[in-house]
């Protein structure tokens, strides 16, 4: 597991951030643009904070992933990881483009069905699927359940038998491989909660063939998120390949290997994970086994497609060694910097700000915690009260992790598509925050 990042090199400049985000551009009159739409125009109409997603960026990145697999000669199905961004508009695009979905809850399953993704293209992952969730999934006939434990295997068998159904299952195997990512998002080490220990997988797979209500089809693995090197993929897939050969030698059929997801993006100046390299790892380790493969990308296709717009409430600097830029967005909107010490690029919206000199400043939100910090000593132009900025690469694990902490309403959301923008979630009102809360009836008297 990687230690917390300590950067010794200079942060990317505003120009460098623009160069690595081709869906963003600047206009001398309108300022920062996303897919040709002026972000200032959206902020003028809706206020801030406001999330903006570029539909064509999402489509292009998914297409690149599929092309990489096809060019490698692989039969690969893409199941988008719903946990990255579960908005119905996003899921609708996924379904329209012919992709499937990877879910981890009954709520996510319901969202896929509402968005029109066929149940047969849905894969159910996760260590703690409830009986009710499994009953619904099996009843719908979803494409695959990734079984995370011996105990869960027995539960699924019992539920499917009671329903008179046959559940199509894979065993999620923990290969004990270090994904070389943040400790909180690694999932393939032996002491992580995920998956079946590698040493137990072959015997449990054989057990699955003896249980009623099950159709075992293969194995799954997922080693973590924000993975930038292919070495962990090679190591994990090599272990799975050995497992496939072993169980086949014992006479058991293996049709499918679910290769997981986790391909990383460039938040700062990292070399982004390459779908072509991932396809190469899959081909090298699994390509000669006659398997149908699948992947579960989430962050890689949707992360760079999104930005969070925010306005400066005030610039706090009198008597301080370093100034603070206080935004109207906060950790309740985007929790990644607070939770993962994550670095996100920040660009101004106004066109004139791109030609101004830069100086270090701390960028923070208004929530009553010191952890409500987006950046420290970030080189930015002299932004002041009412200036606007865009926090980059927030399409994944942004809105889905938002909350009402400090009784702050959820921000509005916008989808940009073909030069137009549409509100896909209105800004939550104060009354909507407590509309489902009730007050107990006042006591009628003393006992």
What is shown here, in short?
With 447 residues, the protein is α/β, with parallel strands linked by helices.
Characterise this structure:
29% of the residues lie in helices and 23% in strands. The protein is of the alpha/beta class. It folds into 2 domains: 14-54 and 304-433, Lyase, Ornithine Decarboxylase, Chain A, domain 1 (Beta Barrel); 55-302, TIM Barrel (Alpha-Beta Barrel), CATH 3.20.20. The strands form 3 sheets. Strands 4, 14, 15, 16, 17, 18, 19, 20 and 21 form a 9-stranded mixed sheet that branches.
Please describe the biggest sheet, giving its number of strands, its sense, and whether it closes into a barrel: 9 strands, mixed
The assigned structural class equals alpha/beta
The overall pLDDT average reads 93
Number of helical stretches of at least 4 residues: 13
Which strand-content bin applies to the residues?
Answer: 15-25%
**General shape:** globular
Instruction: Give the helix proportion (percent range).
Output: 25-40%
Q: CATH superfamily name of the largest domain?
A: Alanine racemase
From the N-terminal CA to the C-terminal CA, the straight-line distance is: 59 Å
Q: Any idea how many domains?
A: 2
Could you list the spans in which at least 5 consecutive residues all have pLDDT below 50?
A: 178-190
CATH class of the largest domain: Alpha Beta
Write down the Rg.
Answer: 24 Å
The CATH architecture of the largest domain can be named as: Alpha-Beta Barrel
Per DSSP E runs of 2 or more residues, the count of β-strands stands at: 21
Q: At the third CATH level, what is the topology name of the largest domain?
A: TIM Barrel
GO molecular function: diaminopimelate decarboxylase activity; pyridoxal phosphate binding
Domain Orn/DAP/Arg decarboxylase 2 N-terminal: 57-300
InterPro entries: Ala_racemase/Decarboxylase_C (IPR009006), DAP_deCOOHase_LysA (IPR002986), De-COase2_CS (IPR022657), De-COase2_N (IPR022644), De-COase2_pyr-phos_BS (IPR022653), Orn/DAP/Arg_de-COase (IPR000183), PLP-binding_barrel (IPR029066)
Cofactor: pyridoxal 5'-phosphate
